[in-house]
Design brief:
Blueprint lengths: L1 E4 L1 H11 L5 E7 L10 E7 L6 E6 L4 E4 L9 E6 L5 E4 L4 E10 L8
Parallel strand pairs: 1-4, 1-6, 2-5, 3-8
Antiparallel strand pairs: 2-3, 4-5, 6-7, 7-8
């Protein structure tokens, strides 16, 4: 799997992370969705990776994903920023999430 960050996405991510320590994860977030196949892509900053996380190649920061959730994503994807200043996850085949959220899930933070 390969993910490319656009320059705009890297700048927005830098503002969001604000130099905090942690690991960036691409999550297939199912909270409140009712079913695992109804999940949405999200970016999470976490304190540590988990045993089932795998590293994804990017042109930017290290990015991790639960290996068993890769089925919900495409082999090549781009993280961009939309006109509304949201992250967008897309592939050559489809728009996976035009309004992808970023969550700081580190122990010191609980905000969006």
């Amino acid at each position: 799997m390969e993910i490319v960050f656009t320059d705009a996405a890297l700048k927005r991510l830098e503002k969001k992370v604000q130099g905090k320590k942690g690991y960036l994860k691409l999550k297939h977030d199912t909270e409140g969705c009712g079913c695992v196949v109804s999940g949405v892509a999200a970016l999470w900053l976490v304190d540590q990776t988990e045993d089932n996380d795998t590293k994804i190649e990017t042109n930017g920061p290290d990015l991790y994903m639960e290996y068993n959730k890769a089925v919900f994503f495409d082999e090549k994807m781009t993280i961009d920023v939309t006109a509304g200043n949201h992250f967008a996850l897309k592939s050559p085949a489809e728009m996976l999430n035009p309004s992808m959220k970023y969550y700081d899930k580190t122990k010191k933070n609980t905000g969006v």
